[in-house]
């Protein structure tokens, strides 16, 4: 520590405050001006005064200084009283010592930016005779108390540790689930360090199968999730456990390609599936919130849904790939107009296959009246594609939703809007089913590990329907909306479908793309990514090329 900084030692915990940046110099206990609470009398006076209007620089500095001093001293009550959520803050600060086993901490504030104060924490965790350092950076923001008028720390769990989200807790000890060494289908180890977006998947696999696989738990520091069913997130290993080996169906090569592909786009997710078995080969997300949207998301899939709608229309004999299907600029149903992208239309006599390949909305919506069955689309989705059945992949997933709809909502459903929700796992499975004509429930790990039941569809796709559907997807990949993205995928045995889903309040539609190449199917979604081929397309192409 340089000569401009002094510190306070209270209750065996050390707080370092660096001079400058509005903080002044923090005095040693017993020095002139110390009031015995870790802050100067002048600082305390500033914090206790009621005020109005924006929080001043002086109030920010004094409040942050007093809070950090109380926290470092282990005085949870004093720290809590300096926040706008005393109950939550008091529990968190108390648990920092008692349940996270922090034996000491050095807290060094940085330069404030407005009312936000960054700081560095150099902590030491001591558990059953083992001590290890835990260093990180966080920040706090000072706000005006709504009723008190006092400057207060805006309490967020992330103040304590930046990876803590609302209602999450920092804990240390011996976890209930022993560690596992997850490997891919070829025995290659899968780690969160090498494949970052697998972190929540690997954590959940450990929670579910760690105890069953026969490993031995060590000691760790982890983040306790707000929802009990969600997996813990390990921050630091204190004592190494003995991991068991857990074999997954993932493919390290395909996973690596998926990780690299989503990293090029914000809020992107992708899943790859082997159609002949339903095995999940890759799961990747690139998101600020760390959410596994690839398997648990629920967004409108846009025109990728036309694979299901097309199968239903072919199944009922209302259309045929090589027969004309009218594609006007606009149609109305249920009192609402529907149009194609940029109001395009196709010439009279254009085949249904071309309407599919060009993603003509109106060609599909015009078939609602001939279908004359509000449950037709949900039935096709569930009975043939397995959408709406309970999938037990080995980790928690969100099922696709295709509810019955009438009027304008039914028209929206035909083109993947309205009440329909999917995630890349669901859409990749839809493509895999179209590829083979048989629904095979996606699997991340073998059901033999825990004897879980696997979903089966009521019926397989008619061979003539499957052949026409694949031919239309191939046309989409070679001369339709998927042409540009799929031109980068080698071989001729490839098909695709694009989707752009309008989201209320969003300036740009979600980008969806799904495709197959040989015995590999993939689907990607990029929130607010634009048209299907713009961002999701290149992701799918990269993954398919890795298979």
**Average of the residue pLDDT scores:** 88
Characterize the biggest β-sheet.
Answer: 5 strands, antiparallel
| Percent helix | 25-40%
Q: Give start-end ranges of low-pLDDT stretches.
A: 1-45
Going across the major beta sheet, what is the strand order?
13-12-18-17-16
Radius of gyration: 29 Å
> Distance between the terminal alpha carbons, to the nearest Å?
54 Å
Shape: globular
Structure description:
- This protein is α+β, with helices and mostly antiparallel strands and 547 residues long.
- The protein is globular and about 80 Å long.
- The longest helix has 17 residues, at 463-479.
- The strands form six sheets. The protein has a five-stranded antiparallel sheet with strand order 13-12-18-17-16.
- Residues 1-45 have low confidence and may be disordered.
- The chain is 30% helix and 22% strand.
- A hairpin with a 6-residue loop joins strand 3 and strand 4.
- It has 18 helices and 18 strands.
What's the gist of this structure?
This protein is of the alpha+beta class and 547 residues long. It has 18 helices and 18 strands.
Provide key terms for this protein.
547 residues, alpha+beta, 5-stranded antiparallel sheet, 4-stranded antiparallel sheet, 18 helices, disordered N terminus
What is the strand and helix layout of this fold?
Elements: E1 5-10, E2 13-18, H1 41-48, H2 57-72, H3 76-80, H4 86-98, E3 102-109, E4 116-127, E5 130-144, E6 151-153, H5 157-160, E7 169-173, E8 180-183, H6 199-213, E9 219-224, E10 233-239, E11 244-247, H7 252-262, E12 268-274, E13 279-286, H8 293-296, H9 306-315, E14 330-333, E15 336-339, H10 352-357, H11 361-365, H12 368-371, H13 376-383, H14 407-414, H15 424-436, H16 463-479, H17 483-486, E16 494-501, E17 510-517, E18 521-526, H18 536-546
Parallel strand pairs: 8-11
Antiparallel strand pairs: 1-2, 3-4, 4-5, 5-6, 7-9, 9-10, 12-13, 12-18, 14-15, 16-17, 17-18
Helix pairs in contact: 1-2, 7-18, 9-13, 9-16
């Amino acid at each position: 520590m340089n000569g401009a900084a002094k510190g306070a030692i209270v209750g065996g915990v050390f707080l370092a405050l660096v001079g400058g940046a509005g903080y002044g110099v923090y005095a040693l206990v017993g020095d002139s001006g110390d009031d015995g609470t870790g802050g100067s009398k002048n600082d305390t006076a500033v914090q206790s005064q009621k005020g109005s209007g924006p929080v001043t620089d002086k109030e920010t500095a004094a409040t942050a200084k007093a809070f950090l001093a109380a926290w470092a001293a282990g005085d949870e009550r004093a720290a809590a009283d300096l926040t706008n959520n005393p109950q939550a803050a008091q529990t968190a600060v108390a648990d920092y010592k008692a349940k996270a086993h922090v034996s000491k901490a050095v807290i060094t504030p940085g330069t404030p930016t407005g009312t936000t104060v960054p700081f560095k924490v150099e902590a030491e965790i001591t558990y059953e005779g083992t001590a290890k350092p835990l260093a990180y950076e966080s920040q706090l923001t000072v706000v005006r108390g709504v009723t008190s008028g006092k400057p207060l720390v805006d309490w967020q769990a992330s103040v304590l540790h930046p990876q803590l989200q609302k209602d999450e807790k920092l804990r240390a000890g011996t976890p209930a689930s022993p560690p596992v060494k997850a490997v891919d289908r070829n025995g290659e180890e899968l780690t969160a360090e090498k494949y970052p977006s697998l972190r929540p998947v690997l954590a959940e696999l450990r929670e579910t199968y760690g105890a069953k696989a026969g490993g031995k738990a060590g000691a760790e520091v982890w983040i306790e999730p707000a929802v009990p069913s969600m997996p813990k997130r390990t921050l630091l290993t204190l004592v190494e456990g003995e991991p068991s080996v857990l074999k997954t169906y993932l493919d390290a090569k395909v996973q690596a390609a998926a990780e690299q592909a989503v990293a090029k786009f914000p809020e992107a997710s992708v899943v790859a599936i082997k159609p002949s078995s339903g095995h999940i080969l890759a799961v990747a997300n690139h998101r600020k919130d760390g959410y596994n949207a690839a398997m648990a998301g629920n967004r409108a899939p846009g025109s990728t849904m036309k694979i299901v709608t097309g199968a239903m229309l072919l199944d009922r004999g209302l259309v045929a790939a090589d027969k004309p299907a009218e594609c006007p600029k606009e149609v109305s149903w249920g009192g609402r107009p529907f149009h194609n992208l940029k109001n395009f239309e196709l010439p009279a006599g254009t085949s249904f296959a071309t309407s599919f390949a060009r993603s003509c909305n109106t060609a599909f919506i015009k078939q609602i009246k001939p279908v004359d069955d509000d449950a037709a689309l949900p039935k096709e989705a569930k009975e043939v594609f397995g959408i709406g059945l309970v999938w037990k992949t080995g980790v928690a997933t969100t099922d696709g939703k295709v509810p019955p709809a009438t009027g304008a909502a039914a028209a929206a459903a035909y083109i993947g809007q309205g009440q329909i929700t999917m995630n890349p796992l669901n859409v990749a499975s839809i493509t895999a089913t179209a590829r083979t004509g048989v629904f095979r429930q996606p699997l991340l790990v073998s059901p033999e590990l825990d004897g879980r039941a696997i979903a089966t569809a009521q019926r397989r796709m008619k061979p003539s329907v499957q052949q026409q559907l694949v031919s239309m997807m191939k046309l989409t990949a070679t001369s339709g909306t998927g042409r540009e993205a799929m031109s980068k995928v080698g071989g001729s045995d490839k098909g695709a479908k694009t989707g752009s889903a309008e989201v209320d309040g969003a300036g740009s539609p979600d980008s969806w793309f799904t495709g197959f190449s040989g015995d590999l199917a993939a689907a990607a979604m990029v929130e607010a990514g634009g048209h299907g081929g713009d961002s999701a397309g290149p992701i799918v192409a990269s993954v398919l090329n890795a298979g």
